[in-house]
């Protein structure tokens, strides 16, 4: 059973603002029956561009219903400019958090809000312009990149939790990984500008990383028939390639983050981020 | 908390009070090791053999054809991997698309487990969950090491024609395994008359505790153990016996044999009452699975345009326990592989609810569920954007 907060349960059992608003002037509809959740959001916006009323209709699980209910409560009384700033994390926070597998319910809420505002303004939805990456759930590259950026996602599994992309046949996992790397490369450039001089020179860092891989990590991986290779180090980003049994192992991403990254942070530098490059 | 209305017996069952009573001495006074040479331990060995005889009696087996395991999953793994090791030159397995994960995930990972390339045929099922015997026959080749097909489906209760399927495999000299964890105790089984080589039983599905299972291995069937250790179970499964649970399973099988008629009359009537009245009272509700070729205790119904997890959580408020094939209850994003294999449309699969009854359920409980379900579905549909469009 999911570990829902009391607030999620409250909003699920007693959802606020259910139904349609007759004179709604902004309606957003996202999701589908096939995907297992769908949300139709109705907004009443006054002449001062303020949301005076909001309501919803939702097909979905408890957290989808609770997220929809929360969203309507959050936007009421806000100007459109204020409402536009609401992120999926804000919706989740309003509910005291959501299980990570259910974060896509909060994304659904944010997307419906955007769609309703776009509908009010009479403009097409920017996200719909992207190219479909996940055919099972109809998720575009723009949606994936946005989720990666906004919620600081690093793993394909996280992208699936947030957007559903990759949750079906799995054929698009490689493309999702490419998108993650693309976005993170941009973030990296920005991060680099912000941080001051590092304690370690690059050569020192690479040497220490290699040392830790050899001494600490390889022996453990080899016990399970796996291996790891250092491909490159770019700032704080450590690019590695998994070999042997690790390649086909379902838990390899966990190994990478929970074990390799943790060890490197502990023994080399707290700010290191480990990424897998295929090849 | 009010009394729980438990209609999730295909997930697990309540330990029968008589079973618990039979087990208790083996947690206290009767703690000996059945392998010991002293009378105190030997006494436990006799209790285990009494349990073995009772279990054998329920399924028409000989007592020494039973190997105690830790669960249904271990029994399944043991049977399939044993066949692959007994015939290492045969690299083909036949199973179905609707198996329990214990068999499905094993068959999908055989290459990793054995280190050899294998082919697995996953037989499709029809819209009613039934299997096409002609297709099954065609799938068998000289390369086939084992067929593994569940006797009854855990999600829909649909029963496969195991007698015919086993006979077809037998004709070709192919080993036949059936995962019968849902069938044993709910329908008569007589292995003396059936050419089945391996059969899996799980204790907690028939009012014995969790943590004990059985693998039936027909006398003369080649067998390679899965857990190797001491000489327990005549070397077929190492590890000190789970004595209390084995005694409990023996008692549970004895009770199941006594209650077989009740299961197939009273429990079936309760199930039918629940099913027929739900289908009548709630529009756009559909039965998943064959109407008659089915376990007497299981019903799986889809309520279109609503989502299963939301239904379950509302039922939970009344302490009604059931389960769903919806994506949201599983942690995966797609609905049940069983319903998808049956071609149940997404509109219906996401809103599927399984009620699985037992001899402990009463008419009063069924009527309570019948009272709560229609308004509950109506309230969720009132919230659903698709229901609106339908109207």
Task: Summarize the helices and strands and which ones pair or pack.
The complex is a heterodimer of chains A (279) and B (391).
Chain A: H1 6-13, E1 26-32, E2 37-45, E3 51-59, H2 62-75, H3 80-83, H4 88-94, H5 103-121, E4 132-134, E5 139-140, H6 141-151, H7 156-163, H8 173-194, H9 202-223, E6 226-234, E7 237-244, H10 245-248, H11 252-267, E8 273-276
Parallel strand pairs in A: 7-8
Antiparallel strand pairs in A: 1-2, 2-3, 4-5, 6-7
Helix pairs in contact in A: 1-2, 2-5, 4-5, 5-7, 6-8, 9-11
Chain B: E1 5-6, H1 17-23, H2 39-59, E2 66-69, H3 72-86, E3 92-96, H4 101-108, H5 110-114, E4 119-123, H6 133-139, E5 144-148, H7 162-171, E6 175-179, E7 198-202, E8 213-217, H8 243-281, E9 285-287, E10 298-303, H9 308-317, E11 320-321, E12 323-324, H10 327-330, H11 337-341, H12 346-349, E13 352-356, H13 363-383, H14 385-390
Parallel strand pairs in B: 1-11, 3-4, 3-5, 5-6, 6-7
Antiparallel strand pairs in B: 2-8, 7-8, 9-10, 10-13, 12-13
Order of helices and strands of chain A: HEEEHHHHEEHHHHEEHHE
Structural class of chain A: alpha+beta
Domain count of chain B: 2
Question: What would the CATH topology of the largest domain in chain A be?
Answer: Sufe protein. Chain: A
Which range best describes the helical content of chain A: under 10%, 10-25%, 25-40%, 40-55%, 55-70% or over 70%? 40-55%
Name of the top-level CATH class of the largest domain in chain A: Alpha Beta
| Overall geometric form of chain B | globular
Residue fraction in strands of chain B: 5-15%
Largest beta-sheet details of chain B: 7 strands, mixed
The end-to-end span of chain B amounts to 39 Å
